[in-house]
Model the fold of this input.
Amino acid sequence: MKLDRDRMPEHVAIIMDGNGRWAKGRGVPRLMGHRAGMEAMKKIVDHSDKLGIRHLTVYAFSTENWKRSVEEVSGIFKLLVTFVNRDLRELIENNVKVRILGDYSTIPEDSKKALEKTLRDTENNTGLQFNIALNYGGRDEITRSVRKLARLAADGEISPEEITEDMVSDYLWTGSANADSPDPELIIRTSGEIRLSNFLLWQAAYSEIVISDVLWPDFDEKEYERCIAEYQSRDRRFGGR
Ligand code: IPE
Ligand code: IPE
Ligand code: MG
Done:
């Protein structure tokens, strides 16, 4: 695949979709799809680093995914912990810095502990920043930012007229007050679905969206590069002519 190394996106965000359909197609339990999805995620983290991408965000669990069965939800969190525990050493060696986008205070206690250890142990790394959107919702995130600014205004720290777009951005999970990632130039969604499902609503204002028909567990380095090549072929105008 011919990729222009000088025009790599700085931030790629991925809606990892299709684990359930992958499992269904094989006649196995949904959780096996999520397990295979974790392996795909691992591959894409490694490959992002190799391609020189600076920030990778993956949508792992949405604020709406709590609607699923208790077994599926707890299974997803267990798998995530397995992933971070198993691969923590390698993440550290590869200089990857892990951040969480979303309020993960409500996830099961053991999962929370494992994640917090990963955050601590990779905190000072300077390579790829790997953001895991967990219990993440775009509307929830904007609401939290607005609440924060309203609090500052109510306390007399700022006046409502002073509020700028940058200030709204700062208090998002990706903002300078939190993970400090730029808006993604590229958003990839797998499994052929063409919607954002409450992902990075504010940050997606001018993102290029690439849809891959591949189900997430089958997503590999080659398909990833195809998506980036498609991004590089786009004419980005930002409202100009
Ligand atoms: C994406 O796969 C993973 C999560 C949402 C946690 P799905 O579980 O949504 O897979 P499909 O859409 O049912 O195939
Ligand atoms: C989006 O996928 C959420 C994640 C990938 C974590 P969903 O499968 O939950 O989205 P919908 O329900 O198809 O919109
Ligand atoms: Mg889905």
